[in-house]
Write a structure and sequence with these properties.
RIIa domain-containing protein, about 110 residues, mainly alpha, single chain, elongated, about 75% helix, P-loop_NTPase
Length: about 110
């Protein structure tokens, strides 16, 4: 007896569900029939969970990359200042933006 493709797919999905939800493989004592609507809902939920997980991981990667870039910038600045100090170059501390803006306003008035 030949089965049509829908019956084969339904049987395949049922076996997959049984294997996934049992410990140690198939549980033939319980034949669980999942309706097409339930299967569709499960598929939608799993796709959304996957999307949210990928989005979360992408955000974490961006944060880690930004943190690494900031650390590299601080280290490079430190090494440059140290190198210039060893050469005897006088380094003046950078001015804050507020003091620079205040000086600009005084000079222009």
């Amino acid at each position: 007896m030949r089965r049509n493709s829908n019956e084969r797919l339904e049987l395949f999905d049922n076996r997959k569900d049984l294997k996934r939800h049992s410990i140690g493989g198939y549980s033939h004592s319980q034949q669980i029939k999942v309706s097409p609507e339930d299967r569709a809902a499960i598929k939608i939920q799993s796709e959304i969970r996957g999307y949210l997980t990928r989005k979360h991981l992408e955000n974490e990667k961006k944060q880690n990359k930004n943190a690494a870039t900031k650390i590299q910038a601080y280290i490079r600045g430190y090494l440059t200042r140290k190198h210039l100090e060893e050469k005897g170059v006088i380094i003046t501390p950078p001015r804050s933006r507020t003091s620079t803006n205040a000086r600009y306003e005084i000079e222009n008035n």
